[in-house]
Every structure is written in structure tokens, then in C-alpha cells.
Amino acid sequence: MTIDEIRDLLKEVKYPGFSRDIVSFGVVKDISLDKDKVEVDLNVTSPSEETRGEIKSQVEAVLTKSGGFSTVEVTLSGGSQASPPQKPAAAPVPAISLSDVKHTIAVASGKGGVGKSTVAVNLAVGLAQKGHKVGLLDLDIYGPSLPVIMGVNERPMMTQERKLVPLEKHGLKLMSFGFLTGNDTPIIWRGPMVSRMTEQFFTDVTWGELDYLIMDLPPGTGDIQLTLTQRLRLAGAIIVTTPQDLAISDVRKGADMFGKVNTPLLGVVENMSGYVLSGVVRGSDNQPISNATISIPGMDKTKEVKSSDDGQFTLEVDLFKRGGGHEESNRLHVPLLCEIPISLELMESCDEGIPLIIKDPDSPAGRVFAQLVEKVEEILPG
Ligand SMILES: Nc1ncnc2c1ncn2[C@@H]1O[C@H](COP(=O)(O)OP(=O)(O)OP(=O)(O)O)[C@@H](O)[C@H]1O
Ligand SMILES: [Mg+2]
Asked: Quick one: which ligand is closest to 365's CA?
């Protein structure tokens, strides 16, 4: 058996409590093979001894059952065993948990402007369209974008118990700093205040029962994000990146941050991956021409396509270096969830306040969002 075959075999082991396998969660750190002796090093970040023990014994069982090895050795790193002794914190920070929310998912990136909010909104609306109960929380205190992208900006009501009632639009429950402060107010708040405000968005909002709570995180991987993710006990994080190298190094920082707080990475979304050209080829008489060759030079190779019977064509063109998302998802052993093309319709839909997955689900980017929704449902069933 080769190392790759062993890795495939280990995909039979599911992460306890998830439908996803341990390989795609990045748990399998190292596999070494010496004749018929196999050694597997697992990096289980969960502090739960039960989870760690269960993964270890399942890996041992799968390898032993395969009959391919005389000796099977499984070691565990990460989590409680490997973590260095912690300095006592100044004040203990209890975790916030929302018992009525099945899955809390953060959409994050190390960098601004890569499309986190666009992805968060379309994912949330797409999940709601499938009949799930979904909340969307915009935690971007310095530049809340939910009011614009969702086309709603009202002051939330308060209950008698002084809890905020989320706004509802496009089938979602919504909360954003923007609803409270107005979109134009430049806010300069320091970390502790942001943390307190954020906490209130969890504890003092009547979210009710939800299958998914999607959080649009502010850009960066600083203290604020770290504290948030640490305290909120996320089901997982989705990292958004653009294909260029610079953004990719930010993905690493983002991924590392979630590693520090034991949050599984659900996968990477590559945004602005390429451009989908579409149109109709016409002759000088303005009649559509079928079977014409459209040829566009791309980054790696010239791409060609033939027009259809009615002259129509679509062709995906790379504007930037491709493959960064692929490389990074391989390195992290997490899936590349989707590649969203640059799309004028997507940009317009954000400005208009009607998410593309509602406005034009059959557009190239709309279809990619539908794939993303399916993958998230598969990883974390609602
Ligand atoms: N695939 C795309 N094609 C075209 N425009 C896009 C695409 N994705 C996002 N945009 C546009 O890029 C801009 C930035 O997107 P968005 O606000 O979602 O990014 P962000 O990562 O949330 O930014 P910030 O870090 O400021 O919160 C928006 O105007 C949005 O409409
Ligand atoms: Mg944003």
C-alpha cells in the first residue's frame, strides 16, 4: 500500500459529530511506512479526551482491518496533550454558546475586500432557500456591509426584556452593527468594547432556533477575531481568498488563527477566480453565426470555444494566476469548496441589495453559490 492509498483508507474515519472525514479536516499530520510497519501521526486539536481517543482507536481499527500491515502505530499530537502549559489569563473568559443554533459558521479571511460579505450573504440565502432556518450576523464593526448587500437598514426592535429582535429579509434573520449605528458613522472602538458588543449580538438577540448562523467576520486575523472565534465555539470556518499569491499568504494566517482556537476549517473559497465571457457571434448582416471559433489568450494557454447553433458562446478566461486556492486547500487538507468567477452581475446584485442567488441563480456565479450551499449542507447537515 502506498502513502496515498493509506490516506484514502483513513478517509473512512469520520470526525466524531461530523459527516466529514478526518483527512479533510487536516487531522492526519504524517504517515510513514517502513516495509509492513505503518506509523500515523494525528493532530487532533480538540481538547476532548473522548474525541481524541475515538479518532485514535478508529484509525487503528481501519488500518488493522485492512490486513496490509504487521505493525500499526498511531500517535496523537495537538489538543490537550501537546499544548504548552498556558499562562493563567487575567480574567477567565467563559465561552458563549447558543443552544438553539445547530451550526455557527464563520466566513473569514486575512485580507479585506476579497468577497467575504458577498460569500456570507449568498451562502446564507442559499441555505434558507433550501428550507433551513438561517441567521446572518455581520460582525464587521468598522465597515458593516450587510445593510447594503441585503438591501435593508432599519433599527431593530427591542423586546420587553431588552433583547434585540433580528430584522428579516430574503428569508433570513439579520443583525449588523450597521443597523444600530447607521451606515455612515465611522466607528473607532477599541478591542474590549468590540468584544462586548459582539457578545451582545449573541446573548441579547432573539435568534430563536436556527439550523445555521452564518457570521461575516471583519477582515484580518488580529486579537478581535481571535477572541471572537475563541469564545463563540464555532462549528467551522470558511476562508475566502482571491487567487493571487498575496491573498494566499493571508489565507495561511487565517487558517492558523482558526487552528489556534480549535475551529475546524470547512474549506477554502476562491473568489474572483476568472472571468466568464459570454455573448453571441454575429456576421456583418447581424445574423448569429454558428460553429464560429472564439479564441482568447489566457494566462496558461489560449482558450477556444465554438459558438452554438444560435451563435451563443461562453468562455472562462483567467485574469490572474489560477490554482492558488487548490494549492492551499491541498496543503491544509481541506476542500476547495468553490471557485467564484469575477462577475458583473454579482457586483451589481450586491449594490442593488438583492443577492445574486435570488436575482439570477442561473448565472455562472449564481450556480457556483448553489454548489457552495450543497457542500456546506453535506459537511454540516442542517
Ligand atoms: N466575484 C466577484 N465579481 C465581481 N465583484 C465582486 C466579486 N466578489 C465580490 N465582489 C465585489 O467586491 C467588493 C468587495 O466584496 P465584499 O464586500 O464581499 O468583500 P469583503 O471581503 O467582505 O470586504 P471587507 O473586508 O471590506 O469586509 C464588493 O463591491 C463586491 O460587490
Ligand atoms: Mg465585508
From this structure: 1
Q: Domain 101-267+321-379: give its CATH architecture.
A: 3-Layer(aba) Sandwich (3.40)
The string of DSSP codes covering 310-343 is: TSEEEEEE--S---HHHHHHHHHT--EEEEEEE-
Pairwise CA distance, residues 35 & 225, whole Å: 46
Provide CATH code, domain 3-81: 3.30.300.130
Nearest to 264 by CA among 12, 78, 63, 114: 78
Q: Ligand 1, closest atom to CA 218?
A: 27
Q: What is the pLDDT of residues 245-262, one digit of tens each?
A: 555 676 777 777 787 777
For 225, the 3-state DSSP assignment is helix
Q: Is the pTM of this model over 0.90?
A: no
Going by C-alpha positions, the residue among 12, 2, 3 that lies closest to residue 65 is 12
Q: What percent of the chain is modeled with pLDDT above 90?
A: 45
Does the beta carbon of 225 sit less than 6 angstroms from any atom of ligand 1? no
